[in-house]
Specification:
Largest sheet: 2 strands, antiparallel
Radius of gyration: 18 Å
Strand order of the largest sheet: 1-2
Low-confidence stretches: none
Distance between the termini: 50 Å
Shape: flat
Number of helices: 2
Structural class: alpha+beta
Number of domains: 1
Helix content: 40-55%
Number of strands: 2
Strand content: 15-25%
Order of helices and strands: EEHH
C-alpha cells in the first residue's frame, strides 16, 4: 500500500488519524461549496456577485510582480 503524504494528524476517539493533503483539499472544497450554496440559498448574495468578487481576488493575488 502506498504511503500517503500527511498534511496533519488528528486525534479522534483517542486514535491518531493521518490526513493527506488530498483529503484536506477535498474537505475544504466540500465545506466551501456547502457554505456558498447556503449563502446563495439565504439570499446573502447572488452567484454573479461571487464570480465578480472571485475576479477581484484573482487580480489582487495573482498580479504580475512589479518591474524594478
Amino acid at each position: 500500500m502506498a504511503e500517503k503524504n500527511v498534511a496533519l494528524k488528528m486525534i479522534m476517539n483517542g486514535k491518531e488519524i493521518d490526513v493527506s493533503f488530498e483529503e484536506l483539499a477535498l474537505s475544504n472544497n466540500l465545506a466551501q461549496e456547502a457554505l456558498v450554496r447556503l449563502l446563495i440559498q439565504k439570499k446573502m448574495f447572488v452567484p454573479k456577485e461571487l464570480i465578480d468578487m472571485m475576479e477581484i481576488v484573482k487580480k489582487e493575488r495573482y498580479r504580475q510582480p512589479e518591474k524594478k
